[in-house]
Amino acid sequence: MTTTIAWHVHHDRLLEPLTEPIGNRIAYIKANKSKHEVETRLRLLKPVKGRLPWEVVKAWEAYGKAWEAYVKTREAYGKAWEAYGKAWEAYGKAGEAYGKAWEAYGKAVLDHKDEIEALHREECPNCPWDGETIFPEKVE
After folding, report:
1. Are 25 and 62 in the same domain?
2. DSSP states of 87-104 as a string?
3. What is the pLDDT of residues 81-120, one digit of tens each?
4. Helices (H), the chain
5. Are 35 and 79 contained in the same domain?
6. What predicted TM-score, i.e. pTM, was given to this entire model?
7. Are residue 77 and residue 121 in the same domain, yes or no?
8. Are 59 and 14 found together in one domain?
């Protein structure tokens, strides 16, 4: 990753790598900075010409790679969050449908209690079911 490192890109840093062409920074300064700051900022903003310590250059390259990975994962996170939102909404709707179906089932069982109990007596003779449990006598 070839990067231009410049002096005084921002007022509070001695040097830093440019993340876009220097002309973009110049245009931004002219358009957005206080008039009394523009001349000083433009005079001092310039690419580093000499050789910087290797560790500084390597550290910036590592930062650049880490930034690219961060951007990719942030995009993936955004997509995952959006999918999560849609899934959560679907989950809520399914829960509502489940609740309504459970209520309908309970009502149908109550509405046909006598028929169900008669069928049970026929199919399950000698069953200890007392309407609540198959273990009607408490065992302690």
Report:
1. no
2. HHHHHHHHHHHHHHHHHH
3. 999 999 999 999 999 999 999 999 999 999 999 999 999 9
4. 22-32, 35-44, 54-111, 113-123
5. no
6. 0.51
7. yes
8. no
3-state secondary structure of 47: strand
The string of pLDDT tens digits covering residues 22-41 is 999 999 999 999 999 999 99
Amino acid letter, residue 126: N
> Amino acid identity of 14?
L
Q: How many CA atoms lie within 13 A of 90 on its CB side?
A: 6
- 30-72: pLDDT as tens digits: 999 999 999 999 999 999 999 999 999 899 889 889 989 999 9
Q: Which residues constitute the domain of residue 33?
A: 1-46
Same domain assignment for residues 23 and 79? no
18 and 41 co-located in one domain: yes
DSSP 51: P
Query: CA dist 95 to 85, 98, 103, 106, Å?
Result: 15, 5, 12, 16
Question: Residue 2's pLDDT is what?
Answer: 61
**Based on the number of CB atoms within 10 Å of its own CB, is 128 exposed (0-12), middle (13-18) or buried (19 or more)?**
exposed
